[in-house]
Design a protein that fits this description.
The complex is a heterodimer of chains A (113) and B (116). Helices cover 0% and strands 50% of the residues of chain A. Chain A has 113 residues and is mainly beta. In chain A, strands 2, 4, 5, 6, 9, 10 and 11 form a seven-stranded mixed β-sheet that branches. Chain B has no helices and twelve strands. The chains are: A mainly beta (113), B mainly beta (116). Chains A and B meet through strand 4, strand 5, strand 9 and strand 10 of A and strand 5, strand 6 and strand 11 of B.
C-alpha cells in the first residue's frame, strides 16, 4: 500500500541558508500535517492543511512557511536556518471524514551546521 | 497544563513478559481520540492502536491492547509477550474534536528496552 513519502530523507544546511522539505500524502488523503521533533523531544505540531487550505497552525516560526498544492503534495519552506532548527521533520496525512489515525512519513532529518 | 502525560521516561522489560506504558490525558472535549505510536531508533513513527472517547470496549491490535479508563483519563498501552523488536520509544497522543479534529498532541514518550 502507498505510504506518505517525504523527501529528502536527510538534509544538511548551513546557518542562514534555506531548505525546502516535500511531502506526498497517501492518495485520497485530504489533510496534511507537519511536525518537528527535536533531539530527545516529542513531535511538535507546526501546521496543517485541509483541501489545500491552511487549517491549523502551531508553533511554527515566522521563518517557516508551508503550502499544499493542487496535487495535494505539501512543501515546508524554511529560511534563515538556525542551529536549533536541526530536527526530524515529519509529514502525516489522513482522510478527515474517517476518524482514523494519521499516517506518518519516514521523516526528513535536517541538520544545520 | 500538559495535555498528555507519560510519567515513565524509560523502562526495561524481560523478553516474553508483558509491559504497561502509562498515559494520562487532559481534555474538556467530549469527543477525542487517543493513539499510541512506536518510534524505533530508525526514526519512523509507526501507528499501533487507537481508542475513541465513545468506544465502549478497550481497543486491541494483536499484542497491543489499550486499557482505557475514561473517568480517570488514562489510556495505558499493554504490550504482551514482549519481543526484542519492541525496543523503541513509545508515544501516547491525543486528537480532540472527533472526526473533524486535527492535530495530534504527543506526550513526552517512554523508552522501552527489551532484555533477552
Amino acid at each position: 500500500a502507498a505510504g506518505v513519502i517525504q523527501s529528502p530523507r536527510h538534509l544538511i544546511k548551513e546557518k542562514r541558508e534555506t531548505a525546502t522539505l516535500k511531502c506526498y500524502p497517501i492518495p485520497r488523503h485530504d489533510t496534511v500535517y507537519w511536525y518537528q521533533q527535536g533531539p530527545g523531544q516529542d513531535p511538535q505540531f507546526l501546521i496543517s492543511f485541509y483541501e489545500k487550505m491552511q487549517s491549523d497552525k502551531g508553533s511554527i516560526p515566522d521563518r517557516f512557511s508551508a503550502q499544499q498544492f493542487s496535487d495535494y503534495h505539501s512543501e515546508l519552506n524554511m529560511s534563515s536556518l538556525e542551529l536549533g532548527d536541526s530536527a526530524l521533520y515529519f509529514c502525516a496525512s489522513r482522510r478527515r471524514q474517517l476518524n482514523t489515525e494519521a499516517f506518518f512519513g519516514q521523516g526528513t532529518r535536517l541538520t544545520v551546521v | 497544563a500538559q495535555k498528555i502525560t507519560q510519567t515513565q521516561p524509560g523502562m526495561f522489560v524481560q523478553e516474553k513478559e508483558a509491559v504497561t506504558l502509562d498515559c494520562t490525558y487532559d481534555t474538556s472535549d467530549p469527543s477525542y481520540g487517543l493513539f499510541w505510536y512506536k518510534q524505533p531508533s530508525s526514526g519512523e513513527m509507526i501507528f499501533l492502536i487507537y481508542q475513541g472517547s465513545y468506544d465502549q470496549q478497550n481497543a486491541t491490535e494483536g499484542r497491543y491492547s489499550l486499557n482505557f479508563q475514561k473517568a480517570r483519563k488514562s489510556a495505558n498501552l499493554v504490550i504482551s509477550a514482549s519481543q526484542l523488536g519492541d525496543s523503541a520509544m513509545y508515544f501516547c497522543a491525543m486528537r480532540e474534536g472527533g472526526a473533524a479534529g486535527n492535530k495530534l498532541t504527543f506526550g513526552g514518550g517512554t523508552r522501552v528496552l527489551v532484555k533477552p
